[in-house]
Amino acid sequence: MLELGRTYTVEVDCLDKDGAWCLIEGERLLLPQREVSEDLEPGDSLTGFAFQYQNDCTLLTLRPVQAEAGQFAALKVQQVTRHGAFLAWGPPKDILAPFGEQPERMKMGETHLVKICLDEEGRLFATARIDLCLEWDETPLQSGDEVDCLLWQLTPLGAKVILNDLYPAIVYKEDLAENAAVGDRHRATVRQVREDGKIDVTLRKVGREARTEATDVIRQALAADGFLPLHDKSNPEEIQQQLGLSKKLFKKAVGILYKGGEIELVDQGIRRKEHREE
């Protein structure tokens, strides 16, 4: 039996007033009439998302979905009823987050990070109990690994994140953009795995790639008038605000540019050297 919450490639068997009837592995799926294009014919292939059982068949949608079963997404509350909160996620029918799956009661218009799940009867629902969906005890991740990073919750120190849709970790404030929001996805690098198993990650490039990018940022900042009012005594917040770099990376990039003869260090900052032909 096909599972709801998955994307399938199906073949159109026939069309009638209800829509396009499709077949896969001997099962019938219905693409509702509202989504049937005028040029669709029997024998055509479709890639659709199975989202609901109805009258002994499975309904398909061609609409893009924000998450499949087993995945996380930040979804907006469209309606709150006595059953729970209904969240928009792409298919015509909003998905239910029952009250029992809400650590805090959801309200109209709010956006919450949830995981799309299947209950014992194969029905789709959303849970906001993210901590119960993660692997807390062991991780195969190591320092330097590149990972998918999903922003879970903003905190005074930065943000709680989920790595590869499974492992909890922390990103510190200095790595976050000012407009960072729950549900943002990034590529990240594991900075360290502590002895207690907690994981720190960075959203910044690391190593040579980070230094190369930082030197390019400084060159661009110097392009206007050749002077940048930042130096090794500047506050980290000031450097972050003007260049988007940590102070440590800024100092490394300045050292590279200085040794390369591209800049000179002056009392109030750094100045681009003008190279004149003799």
Write the layout of secondary structure elements.
Layout: E1 6-16, E2 19-24, E3 27-32, E4 45-54, E5 57-61, E6 72-81, E7 84-88, E8 95-98, E9 111-118, E10 124-127, E11 146-155, E12 158-163, E13 167-172, E14 185-193, E15 199-202, H1 207-222, E16 227-228, H2 236-243, H3 247-259, E17 263-266, E18 269-272
Parallel strand pairs: 3-5, 13-15
Antiparallel strand pairs: 1-2, 1-4, 2-3, 4-5, 6-7, 6-9, 7-8, 9-10, 11-12, 11-14, 12-13, 14-15, 16-18, 17-18
The backbone outline, from C-alpha atoms, is: elongated
Structural category is mainly beta
Low-confidence region ranges: none
Element string (H = helix, E = strand):
EEEEEEEEEEEEEEEHEHHEE
CATH architecture of the largest domain: Orthogonal Bundle
Number of strands: 18
Average pLDDT number: 89
The CATH topology of the largest domain corresponds to Arc Repressor Mutant, subunit A
Helix content: 10-25%
